[in-house]
Amino acid sequence: MDRVLIDCGAGGSWDPSMGHLAEAMAEAGIDTSSITMIALTHAHGDHINGLLMPDGRRAFNGLRKIVIGADAIEEFLAEPVLEQFRSLLAPVNGGDRLADHLLAVDIPGHARGHMGYLLNTDEDDVLFCGDLIHVPAAQFARPELTWAYDDDEAVARATRIRLLPDTANAQTWLAGAHLGRPGIGRVVEEGQGYAFIPVA
After folding, report:
1. Which residue among 9, 126, 139, 141 is the one 20 to 30 A from 162 at the CA level?
2. Which residues contact 46 (CB under 8 A, 6 or more apart)?
3. What percentage of the chain carries pLDDT values higher than 90?
4. Which segments constitute the Metallo-beta-lactamase domain (predicted)?
């Protein structure tokens, strides 16, 4: 059975304050070598560069597979330092099942091949939504708001407007890279839009 990590951060590629995933995992009692599959939401540097340690060593020695949206592979391989992972890439499309309780979900608009991953725990569902939301303080209340980092702002807007009510109605936990600590919570209706209630 695979042990899956969804996205792996920026590594040390952006700022000296980053690149501490291994230490954080150790603090949580998770050995990085136990990770056998990484499921990437998309191929932007702040989600993929953590495959390498700041010193250039591979961060996950037990890694056997990197799941990535089929349309995101070209962008992933545009990073020359990541070419070494080519043989591990496994393209995925929305609706593909990665494991018994883990399903790939199309979340188009932010980037080519942008994927979410829906985890069913038999008690709750958790949607790992990548960059569906960038500015929580604004985009929950007004999901129509977009910004220039979305590849296709119109599609990103439509995706958000579709997914937020679905998530609220189903009481699905939402986990995202830009939601602020702890990065997971529930979406609830509030006024004409929504609010994000972080997990306690």
Report:
1. 9
2. 9, 10, 14, 177
3. 86
4. 2-178
